Amino acid sequence: MKNAFLPKSLLTLTAVFCFSIYSFSQESESSDKCWYHWDHAKLGVAGISLKETYDFLREKNRKSKTVIVAIIDSGADTAHIDLKDNLWTNPGEIPYNGIDDDKNGYVDDIHGWNFIGGSSGENVNGDSWEKTRYYGRLKAKFGEKTKKEISKEDAKDWALWEEVKTDYENELLQTAQELSYIQQLLKGFEAIEDVLTDFFDSSEFTLDQVKEINSTDEKVLEAKRLYVSLTEGGLSKKDLQKWFDDYNSTLQVKLNPDNNTRLIVGDDVTNIKDSLYGNNDVKAETSSHGTSVSGIVGAVRGNGEGIDGIADNVKLMIIRVVPGGDERDKDVALGIRYAVKMGAQIINCSFGKDYSPNKEFVDDAARFAEKNNVLIVHAAGNDSKDIDEGKNFPTAKYLDGNSCSTWLEVGASSQEVGIGLNADFSNYGKVSVDLFAPGVDIYTLNPGNAYGSSDGTSVASPVAAGVAALILSYYPNLTAVQLKKILMDSSVKYSKQQTVVYTGNGKTKKKKFGDLSKTGGIVNALNAAKMAEELMKK
Question: Could you state, in order of their start, the residue ranges of all structural domains in the chain?
């Protein structure tokens, strides 16, 4: 998945590391790690005022009804102690009897469905980017041709080929260069450690021990200086090895045109009617992303474990379409349709990509959700770009120029009410983005009963979806259109706040926060509850 939590380029590593140190020092000073739950008025942070919301709902004697939220993502750890009790369970299915009891076409879909798995139980765990797939297909058609040889019928595909070719080859070159750079750093770090290992006659030594080295050997002193500098700067051999593995995987999988993981699934990816495929393994082997997203919306509240999710009466339907590469339009469309048919009232989509070869599939599915009163909440993406001008699919705008009225597009904001209010990685757009939500240093679930912090519009989107679920739970008569309007209108407005946006190549420019979205606001549960209360009175 391109829009993951981690930065895409080495150009941002230093800035990300510096922010990580800041976030950790702030987090360690507080017993509550979920700053995004905090009240913006009382504590001066751009949180969602969650405690105050529950206080308000109790004051109004509001009772909740269960809301079903579909998490269309990479899967989720269904055994997580802070998640398992809030999983949606298909009432029409007898667990694991090998029979399609509810006759929806999916056998034993107990907690949802995995659209990127095979009937034999094997799963797709890593896939290519859409630009890579396009490159492979169009190269076979145009690779040896010149523009003069192109017919009028192929003119549109040729223009796409020229765009994709440039995009893909630039990405390939940049990734290879960055991988080489990391490899050099890794070798250099290993050489430093070799010198220090010889000095200590052991590979086990601490930073404090290295600082105390007293030697006349210039080689040892240089190793000491570099080790201290790198380690205090937050760079470790483990980090370098992880980055090397990530970039190498990008080359071997995400940028490999010959990588055809769809053979595992066994469907015709261009045929939306070929819909009965996949398996019921919604946890699979790579559920980290979806577990984090799920926890933000619906980690069990009040159980004394880890964190409390935003919504207190929610059931999470887990739908797996994100493979650790770009999701396929067909899987996304069928995932949305499955969610709507099985009773989801809100769908969270924390994924995105630059190309959409079968956008009509997703458009039709979004229309189906719209017709059935279902709110779709989507992450705006992590490319630091204006998506009024750039691309980030899926999108609320249909191919015919109309837009989905029940689609909420969400950018990521930070804890800081100031020049850094918007997350520097977040996409934005006065027309395309509806509002922002906390998306930096978001403490949530990790697989294996673990917890950790993540950054990204991928985590901002479920913050907004969680608020939507909370409001709908206590005000169940709201339509999806009304719910979206309430979240937008009640957002805390920072329209005149000056912020900095990243424009590429290390450059930035100042913009008003109000110019980054339709509302110029950040989602707030308390304001939304008050507005819903007034609407219900009327």
Answer: 10-124+267-537, 131-254
Residue 538 has pLDDT above 90, yes or no: no
Average confidence (pLDDT) over 159-174: 96
Q: What is the pTM of this model?
A: 0.91
Cα–Cα distance, 24 to 415 (Å, whole number): 13
User: pLDDT of 86-100, one tens digit each?
Assistant: 999 999 999 999 999
Q: ω before 394 within 30° of 0 (cis)? A: yes
Q: Which pLDDT score, from 0 to 100, does residue 506 have?
A: 73
Among residues 500, 517, 509, which one has the least CA distance to residue 420?
Answer: 500
pLDDT digits (tens, 9 = 90+) for 246-282: 999 999 999 999 999 999 999 999 999 999 999 999 9
Cα separation values, 527 from 53, 305, 436, 513, Å:
8, 28, 15, 19
Alpha carbon 376 to chain centroid, angstroms? 15
Listing DSSP states for 399-436 in one string gives TTS-B-TTEEEEEEE-S-SSTT-B-TT--B-TTT--EE
Chain-centroid distance, C-alpha 336: 17
Which homologous superfamily does the CATH classification assign to the domain defined by 10-124+267-537?
Peptidase S8/S53 domain (3.40.50.200)
* 450-454/442-446 β-pairing: antiparallel
Q: Which of 32-36, 160-164, 268-272, 305-309 comes out lowest in average pLDDT?
A: 32-36
Q: Kindly give, in sequence order, each residue whose CB lies less than 8 Å from that of residue 16, ignoring residues fewer than 6 positions away.
A: 7, 455
**Is the pLDDT score of 223 beyond 80?**
yes
Report the alpha-carbon distance of residue 320 to residue 78 in Å, rounded: 12
- Torsional class of 468: left (φ above 0), alpha (ψ -120 to 50), beta (otherwise): alpha
Place of tokens 């050997």: 217
Between CA 371 and CA 112, with CA 329 as vertex, the angle to 5 degrees is: 70
When pLDDT is cut at 50, 70 and 90, the band that residue 41 belongs to is: confident
Are residues 354 and 2 in contact, defined by beta-carbon separation less than 8 angstroms?
yes
- Which residues are within 8 A (CB) of 25 and not within 5 positions of it... i.e. 6 or more apart? none
Tell whether the model's pLDDT for residue 31 goes beyond 50: no
Q: Which residue has the tokens 């056998």?
A: 107
Which phi and psi angles does 435 have, rounded to 5°? -160, 175
Which sign, positive or negative, has the C-alpha torsion 35, 37, 38, 44?
positive
> Measured between alpha carbons, how far is 486 from 467 in angstroms, rounded to an integer?
11
Print the SS3 string covering 38-102. CCHHHHCCCCCCHHHHHHHHHHCCCCCCCEEEEEEECCCCCCCCCCHHHECCCCCCCCCCCCCCC
Residue pair 298/437 in contact (Cβ under 8 Å)? The answer is no
Angle in degrees, 0-180, between the axes of helices 359-371 and 329-341, rounded to the nearest 10: 10
- Closest-CA residue to 536 (of 66, 37, 63, 68): 63
